[in-house]
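Changelog note: in this version the structure field was regenerated for every chain. One regenerated record is shown below for reference.
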Amino acid sequence: MRRRQFLSTAAGGLLALPFSFGAARKPTITIALKSLRNQFFTMMIAGADQHRVTHAGEYQLTVEGVQEETDVKGQQAIVQRCLERRDDALIIAPADSSAMIPILLKAIAAGTLVINVDNKLDERALVKANVNIPFVGPSNFNGARGVGDYILRGLKPDSKVGIIEGLPQSINAKARSDGYRESIRRAGMTLAGMRWGYWVSDKGRQAALELLDAAPDLAALLCGNDNMAIGAVEAVAARHRIGKVLIGGYDNISDVAPYLASGRIAATADQHPELQMQYALDLALQSLRNHTRQADIQTIMQTPVDLVKGR
């Protein structure tokens, strides 16, 4: 597990929760991310770095992440360390939309301000717990629908399309797949099947192979992130279908650039992870400065998402 510490942002203030910090003490913030092997989250760290420089000396920041997307226990341990330090705020991209909620409730009860980025927490579970955990991020549904609409626009009606979804129990994975399904419906296409790719290239490749074998006349593969889309490119090549299967991704990580330039991936969505993190840090600092209670923070802060076209 990798851990980094920085000095950074926000006017100090009094948090109107069980504990407070004096005017001379800089507020402390922890960022808990998912897989640090995923470029999307290293891009989030870059956003935090930039924010730290812009607000030099205004806050103390700890950034931690796990190595695997599904490492719930590892991420729970990060939150526990945040609690032990009695940090003022926690910004988290949860490894699981439901399983992380109990320890986040514990953090809120201890007086830590909690903000959710990237993967949205389960709204039903939050309502049941009667707690507000604000979400900072884009509409994954709209971003994926934009990719799907662009890729499917030139295909014949009733063409077969496969979806490679990120991870079970991840709200953002489901939202992207729902956006793709809406594109398929609006274009008059046929959903040939869905497989999980668990956000990584090798499992994305296996998922794509299964879909290609089940539907040899598949015309497009819509993937929940770029890692899985890169795996889908490998699968299409392995089945000698290059140029016959259009592929869509999501995230616009740096590794996808040559695939877009060559046309092997037709489009992706840029949800600006750096901006997501900067918006979340701004929200945390503003809430601390204004003594805003967890229950009173705005529920959703929408961030931009843009279509990025390939060749």
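Spot check on this record: The longest helix spans residues 171-187. The first strand starts at residue 2 and ends at 8.
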